[in-house]
Design goal:
- By secondary structure, the protein is of the alpha+beta class.
- It is built from 15 helices and 15 strands.
- The strands form 3 sheets. A 9-stranded mixed sheet has the order 7-6-2-8-9-13-12-11-10, sandwiched between helices. It has a 3-stranded antiparallel sheet with strand order 1-14-15. Strands 3-5-4 form a 3-stranded antiparallel sheet, with no helix packed on it.
- Strand 8, helix 8 and strand 9 form a beta-alpha-beta unit.
- Helix 3 packs across helix 12 and helix 11 crosses helix 12.
- It is globular and about 80 Å long.
- The C terminus is likely disordered.
Length: about 500
């Protein structure tokens, strides 16, 4: 008697080479991103701020940006990946147009580069690091980003989750690139080093400044901070700022603490930034009496986190005679007996500089440390899960626009998670978000002359999509036909 082959060594079907003729899609969940994009009024903002088309025919600016944002949410890393969306009849019917080809998208992105601005770049022999100014279209994208942030904040308000506090976390990140135009950064490689500001409470990227890789983070951080606070909605009544030692810069600190900030919408800005460890500051920390150090936390390996007030006045330009001196809070990391740091010492000293005098030193340092879980998370997601880590061009303006679109995609995903998902799903990383919301099998069909999207998935998956439709309100052709009793074509 013949022996039966094990089930796992054979397959019970053959592959039919004929493609399905029905309007199906393997990532029908991308239509939820389109829903949010349009409900937030982004097409109108784009058309108002980005009149880039030279001819009326062809794709509109909002159609190309919507397609590129959806591409990045789906996992695409360059315009050529638009081929993955080509021929998707379900998406075409749901969007009302077929996504553009890579050539059209690249031609559109080229318009963000201003050749005349190249003339402003000084010779490397005269000035090594130069902050390349944003072109008009790239600046217009920042206006679109700010409008998107305000509209998302309004939606949170309408859903009973209004946020009155805005903490801006600012940090620069390195994007590795082998483009010939990319410059060497401080870690030895080549690439770009954009500065990004994030609204921590709502997990939204509110501003960025795209920079060459050789521009140090401490060079002129004020511009990005000003754009970030300008993007906040009027509903914010308390403003804060956190940064690392790159933000310990005289112009930025002078602007943050200036009395005029209290007269602006949102009021005074409370801030804390990591202090640059100068020799004088290091000496002041070591002079603090042993009894003044207070333990406020213990790390898993037993290292004590201790704080103390530091009597230190740097005498820098932003410390005018009329202004209140800033507060220095020292941080001492003390290893338990028998353990040492890599340099052979049992203690390390750090400090934070702040204008917040109402907080206990330990609580202030904990609050400042929370920055690592906000803006650094955004860097990781934008560079590794969206297309922000891959530069599509040698042209600076093209790369700046592509990075801003990655931040726009990040904000749309963040809004969907915060407003439509529940529990642990609200903090899902993009990899899991795609499994929950994007990679869903769907079919577009007609029933009684009304076109509808039907998903192939469990009830929870359908319910998530329904929630997106509830939160991001948008009139549809189907509902307008039903309302007037007409027939769809």
């Amino acid at each position: 008697m013949s022996r039966r082959l094990p089930l796992m060594r054979k397959t019970p079907f053959v592959l039919d080479p004929r493609p399905l003729a029905e309007a199906t899609s393997a990532h029908a969940g991308l239509l939820s991103v389109s829903r949010a994009f349009r409900s937030l009024g982004l097409p109108g903002m784009i058309e108002a701020n980005l009149p880039l088309r030279k001819r009326q025919r062809g794709f509109s600016e909002s159609q190309i940006i919507e397609s590129l944002v959806m591409l990045q949410v789906a996992g695409g890393e360059c315009p050529e990946d638009l081929g993955l969306l080509a021929g998707d009849t379900c998406l075409e019917r749901g969007l009302g147009y077929a996504p553009p080809k890579a050539t059209a998208a690249r031609e559109f992105l080229e318009r963000f580069h201003d050749k005349d601005l190249e003339k402003l770049r000084p010779a490397r022999t005269e000035q090594k690091s130069f902050i390349f100014p944003a072109s008009g279209p790239v600046s217009a994208l920042q206006a679109v980003q700010a409008g998107c942030v305000r509209r998302i904040a309004q939606l949170y308000e309408e859903q009973g989750q209004g946020q009155r506090i805005a903490t801006i976390d600012q940090d620069a990140t390195i994007i590795e690139s082998h483009k010939r135009a990319a410059l060497f950064h401080y870690e030895g490689g080549r690439g770009y080093q954009p500065m990004v500001a994030v609204w921590a409470e709502l997990d939204l990227a509110v501003a960025d400044e795209f920079r060459d890789g050789n521009v140090p983070a401490k060079q002129a951080p004020l511009t990005c901070a000003q754009m970030a606070f300008a993007a906040l909605p009027a509903s914010v009544s308390q403003r804060f700022f956190r940064g690392d030692s790159a933000c310990h810069e005289s112009e930025l600190l002078g602007w943050l603490k200036h009395p005029d900030r209290a007269k602006e919408p949102g009021g005074r800005i409370g801030f804390a930034v990591s202090a640059v460890m100068s020799g004088a500051l290091g000496g002041a920390l070591k002079k603090v009496k042993e009894g003044a150090w207070k333990t406020f936390d213990t790390e898993p390996d037993g290292t004590l986190r201790q704080w103390a007030e530091v009597d230190f006045v740097p005498g820098e330009g932003y410390e005018s005679k009329e202004s209140q001196p800033l507060r220095y809070v020292g941080l001492r990391l003390l290893k338990p007996q028998g353990l040492l740091f890599a340099d052979g010492s049992d203690r390390h000293y750090h400090a934070a500089i702040t204008n917040r005098k109402e907080l206990d030193g330990g609580r202030l340092l904990q609050w400042h440390r929370e920055k690592a879980g906000t803006v650094e998370h955004t860097h990781d997601e934008v560079k590794n899960e969206l297309g922000g880590g891959q530069m599509p061009s040698q042209r600076f303006g093209v790369n700046g626009a592509w990075f801003k679109l990655a931040l726009l995609a990040y904000n749309l995903v963040s809004a969907i998670k915060g407003l439509c998902l529940e529990g642990e799903e609200r903090t899902a990383r993009l990899k899991r978000f795609r499994l929950l919301m994007i990679h869903l099998l769907g079919r577009m069909n007609r029933n009684n002359c009304v076109m509808g999207l039907r998903l192939c998935g469990e009830v929870k998956a359908v319910r998530r999509m329904q929630r997106v439709w509830e939160v991001f309100a948008l009139p549809t052709q189907a509902t307008s036909f039903q309302a007037r009793g007409g027939r769809g074509g």
